[in-house]
């Protein structure tokens, strides 16, 4: 089976700073894969390259879905979303002034059509589409556990719920690959346990998940495979337990002395 | 029997009245007052004239509101589209005697085309740079109107534009010309209602939500699949279209145009209405129009009595804006989310979000 996403010889530099150097790895369909590395390793840059927010300096990102293979390196973000890749952000980016429901409705944007004419005339097509948008949005809210909170203002919700809402909004774009950027950041034990359960439920819907995470409990608890990058370079990859005990990884996180001690 | 029916109808209307929200009740009562206003004893032609001016500015500020209020982009050149609409309408009437009812849809399309022409290349610019371009555009329009004397008669102005008329002679009916302020008053109300209807519907649609998304967070908006440039251009075009429609009305109402009616000051005044009323809230924007237009007229009467120059009212506007920004930056009637936060007693601080790599 072809992997859903292949990252081949990916380079990205900002002026003189090489943020990504020759990154190669594949993501298989239906897996939960973790992307870890110390701060500044280039994890979010990699996300941005895949999502189309940054343009890679070199290399290829190939997305395969339903026998359809597309090179997405340098594609516009809205086109990447339309292909079926959704993401969340490290520092939550919600539409703060809108209701929870509207946030998820906006996620439906790329799967719906009506525009100015439909909005003003409210023809049959627009009405049925609008009804479908509301229904689907409510389903996704229920899925992440925010049922009945649709009318709250997004910014006024507690932190954990904002994270959930961001996931619901990403799911509303009907992705095949969902990229979560530090979803457990700032969560307590109970919240991150709930989050892990949610991530597994998303995978059970057939969505592949790429996860950046610093919380090792979450990484160990939910990921089936882990890719480690350091200073923009691929370091190692493998099963979470193996990676955790790999001296190279310990060195990257804690320095040389620590690796010797271990 | 008849009594039972009457009682039934009374109960039904009572239930219907209970069902309408307070906001809706207030809006309906304002509409009723506006409709009967010309027949009240103290209302002179002068007051009707001011009322029409208020309605005109309501259309303009509702139109401009799309760009800064719904999309979060600063537009300082709105008056350019207003001027284009006014002069196009004026010239078409002057040379070809085109009917007002044909001009309105034409003005809408014409405004939208100009909006796209200006917006498509410039909406890639961010923030202040975009504002500067729009400002330049409106100045360009004024210069064009002043210097292209062969077309616009330049600073002499364009007098003798026909009034609006309902011409049924084609069908053997009468021709009714709009003379005095009264017919324009009702025409203006009708146009405000149509504008309001359109804004209300857009607000609660896929298009409106896409705009709000762009306003709140551009990066998150593209991640939801929204094409930033396309939606900003649509916003700019619709905004410009309403500006041009307002201009067309203005041309046929005052029947005289001159380039200095479309100076930068007008753009700024309309922007003030939006900021004062509540950026992004269509009802707030309308309140802003009422407050600033009526205040302008009151000060015009009041200042000479106090021995001050009439231009002093610009100073008064500045003072009001400063006080507003200090004590109620979200406007008289803020958008619901901000209002809720204000009620909760939290100070709304604008989050500074670094826009990573959004150079495209």
Give the key terms.
heterodimer, A: 262 residues, alpha/beta, Rossmann fold, six-stranded mixed beta sheet, four-stranded antiparallel beta sheet, 10 strands, 24% strand, globular, B: 360 residues, mainly alpha, two-stranded antiparallel ribbon, 2 strands
Task: Kindly summarize this structure in a few lines.
Chain A is an alpha/beta fold. Chain A has two domains: 1-84 and 176-235, Rossmann fold, CATH 3.40.50; 96-174, no CATH class.
Question: Helices and strands in order, then pairings?
Answer:
The complex is a heterodimer of chains A (262) and B (360).
Chain A (H helix, E strand, L loop, with lengths): L4 E10 L2 E11 L4 E5 L6 H9 L6 E8 L2 E4 L5 H7 L1 E3 L12 H8 L8 H6 L2 H21 L14 H13 L5 E5 L7 H16 L3 E5 L3 H7 L2 E6 L2 E6 L1 H6 L1 H8 L1 H6 L1
Helix pairs in contact in A: 3-5, 3-6, 5-6
Chain B lengths: L1 H18 L2 H15 L8 H27 L6 H19 L3 H23 L4 H21 L1 H4 L12 E3 L7 E3 L4 H22 L2 H11 L1 H6 L4 H27 L9 H14 L4 H24 L6 H16 L8 H8 L17
Antiparallel strand pairs in B: 1-2
Task: Report on the architecture of this protein.
The complex is a heterodimer of chains A (262) and B (360). With 262 residues, chain A is an alpha/beta fold. Chain A has two domains: 1-84 and 176-235, P-loop containing nucleotide triphosphate hydrolases (Rossmann fold); 96-174, no CATH class. Helix content of chain A is 41%, strand content 24%. Chain A has helices at residues 43-51, 77-83, 100-107, 116-121, 124-144, 159-171, 189-204, 216-222, 240-245, 247-254, 256-261, and strands at 5-14, 17-27, 32-36, 58-65, 68-71, 85-87, 177-181, 208-212, 225-230, 233-238. In chain A, strands 6-7-8-3-9-10 form a six-stranded mixed β-sheet, sandwiched between helices. A four-stranded antiparallel β-sheet of chain A has the order 2-1-4-5, with helices on one face. The longest helix of chain A has 21 residues, at 124-144. Chain A starts with a strand and ends with a helix. Chain B is an all-alpha fold and 360 residues long. Chain B has a domain at 46-262. In chain B, helix 4 (78-96) crosses helix 11. Chain B is globular. Residues 347-360 of chain B have low confidence and may be disordered. Classes of the chains: A alpha/beta (262), B mainly alpha (360). The A-B interface holds A 48, 51-55, 76-78, 81-82, 86-87, 89, 91, 93-99, 102, 105-107, 109-116, 118-120, 122, 126, 129-130, 133, 153, 155-156, 169-170, 173 and B 198, 201-202, 205-210, 212-213, 215-217, 219-228, 234, 238, 280, 335-338, 340-341, 344, 351, 353, 356-358, 360.
